[in-house]
Amino acid sequence: MEEKLQRVPVGPGRGAAVSVRGFLEVTLWLKKIYGNRPVPQYEVNARTIDILYELVECNEARDRDVSLLIEDMKQKATEYEAEANYLQGLLAESLGLSLSSLSSEGTSYLNVLVNSAMTLETKDTSLASFFSAINDMTSELYATESKNREMELELSNLRKKLTAAVMLEKQLEEDLKKTEELLEVEKAKADSRSQNLKFLKDKSEDLKIRIKAAEEQLAATGLDQSLTHESLVSLSEKLAGLQEEIVPLKKKLESYLDLTPNPSLAQVKIEEVKRELNALEAEFSKQIDMLTLEMPEPSKLQFS
Q1: To 10 degrees, what angle do helices 20-34 and 46-94 make?
Q2: How far apart are the C-alpha atoms of 80 and 299, rounded to whole Å?
């Protein structure tokens, strides 16, 4: 491509440095392409001329390739025609056969033979070529069938996996639904428990207020503090403790009763245990008497 540049006018007051040879070749190519039709207007500058020139070169290269292909096809057609004439002459000379002398059945067989050779892509119509081509196609068929079986097996496995995935998805959806229902039930129970707890708290506060008012009223009437609920609970706990202390002593006494009699030692032990038992019983009776004496008569206690 010649690099001699000149200014080519592209419009009022505008210009661009472009290759003269490139511009001329592009112009000739556009006229050749459009023929009698007017060439569309375009901006003439170095970039557009370079792009169009590359298109010209590509187009010319393609035209050359097409021309070469056409020439090659013509040459092959000439060669095939010459070979066909030779074979036809050979058949006519050797066997006295020609296409015009063949019957319709013979022509049909010949067409089948030709079509088979073209389908199998053999170099000639000999039996060796046919057998070789058939063996190749049989091998390809077996390979294709084997591949098809592998693909069918893979497809079957994929179907099984897809079925398992779908079943798992359904099971998960059912589990999710059951979980949501269970959460709703548990939420309702929690709300009910919260309401019950609030009610019990309010009731407890009310009872505390009422108990405090009753204690103040009892204190105003001169009630002994030893008769309050706390004092009675304390005495009951002490009583339970004394009863628990009596139990091992009774068991200890029973163990001594099983021993072989030794008059002197047995009598001493029995007397000691009896004294402890009598002391505890006396303390127990004293506590009972105190509770009995200190409790006021029912008619003296009035609650509002």
Answers
A1: 60
A2: 144
* First-last CA distance in the chain: 125
Q: Rounded distance, CA 149 to CA 144, Å?
A: 9
Give the pair of three-digit tokens for residue 227.
């008769």
Angle subtended by helix axes 263-294 and 229-257, to nearest 10: 160
Which residue bears the tokens 């127990």? 284
Which runs of E-coded beta strand occur in the chain? 5-11, 14-19
**Contact residues for 128 (Cβ-Cβ < 8 A; gap 6+):** none
Verdict on whether the full-model pTM lies above 0.70: no
User: Strand, coil or helix: what is 14?
Assistant: strand
In this structure, what DSSP letter does residue 11 have?
E
Closest CA to 20 of 44, 54, 55, 39: 44
Q: Which long-range contacts (CB under 8 A, 24 or more apart) does 246-251 make?
A: 246/277, 246/280, 246/281, 246/284, 249/273, 249/276, 249/277, 249/280, 250/277
Q: What is the pLDDT along the chain (304 residues), one digit of tens a residue?
A: 333 333 344 333 333 444 677 788 888 888 888 888 888 887 888 888 888 888 888 888 888 899 999 998 898 888 878 877 777 776 666 556 565 666 677 677 777 777 777 777 777 667 787 788 888 888 888 999 999 999 999 999 999 999 999 999 999 999 999 999 999 999 999 999 999 999 999 988 998 898 888 877 777 776 666 666 677 778 788 888 888 888 887 777 776 666 555 667 667 777 787 888 888 777 777 777 666 665 555 444 444 4
Which residues are CB-neighbours of 222 under 8 A, at least 6 positions away?
none
Cβ-proximal residues to 134 (8 Å cutoff; 6+ apart), any chain: 120
For strands 14-19 and 5-11, give the pairing: antiparallel
Q: How far apart are CA 94 and CA 146, in angstroms?
A: 48
Distance in angstroms (rounded) separating the CA atoms of residues 189 and 195: 10
